[in-house]
Amino acid sequence: MRIVLSLGGSVLMGEGLSQKEVSERVLAFADSINRLSEKHTLFVVVGGGRIAREYIGAARELGADETYCDYMGIEITRLNAMLLALAVKNSPKIIPEDFKSALELSLNHAVVLMGGTFPGHTTDATAALLAEFVGADLLLNATSVDGVYSDDPKKSKDAKRFDKLSFEELIEIVSRGEVAAGSSNVIDLLASKIIQRSKIRTVVFLGTPENILRAAEGDVAGIGTIIE
Ligand code: UTP
Fold this sequence. Notes:
Layout: E1 2-7, H1 9-13, H2 19-37, E2 41-46, H3 49-61, H4 66-85, H5 99-106, E3 111-114, H6 123-134, E4 138-143, E5 164-165, H7 167-174, H8 189-197, E6 202-206, H9 209-216, E7 224-227
Helix pairs in contact: 2-9, 3-4, 6-8, 7-8
The structure holds uridine 5'-triphosphate.
């Protein structure tokens, strides 16, 4: 299969960890990616996480507009991709800036890593667009929650988790979220629309190294939501 993995920055780097813990975590994710790449062609889009949010927050304080904030977020996603590239076998260490370069690099590499591309959306949308462009069979969205809920599970205890959703149902749920730079919806609206228009089978799941392997096999019981 051809798989695109959207790996949230906070999923990859964790929160409040020491440098040693971060590097161990990066190695554990790289190990799953290396294993998946033995069977599949893999593209990984890395998110910005806490560091992106800190830069965006400070830039806003200094009067930056949203597009400028987005550009700063994109730089951080690319830095995170560079870090992961150090531990992923047969991946280019120079991170492609657009989809055409990513596709070209995939001809000679088992795994291609990239960060964000354009202002105005998150790496979820980047991953969905890349999945569309490379004709991916599956889009894996590794997040900090165990699937798509009817409401934000961190804010509402009545939020219901879905095992399965149609493309239309996903859009209905995601439409209620926000779109500011650095905001953390489980998957952004643009990503949902791209997934819908190209009918890309997608799994939104709790991003751990082990779950990435499970989600690729379609085994998401208790860890995520399948959208198809
Ligand atoms: P993400 O919000 O995708 O990072 O990008 P993330 O790591 O997935 O977020 P967490 O870890 O799940 O919380 C960070 C910011 O970079 C900008 C946006 O401002 C986004 O909020 N960005 C990223 C873009 O403008 N375009 C892109 O293609 C990617």
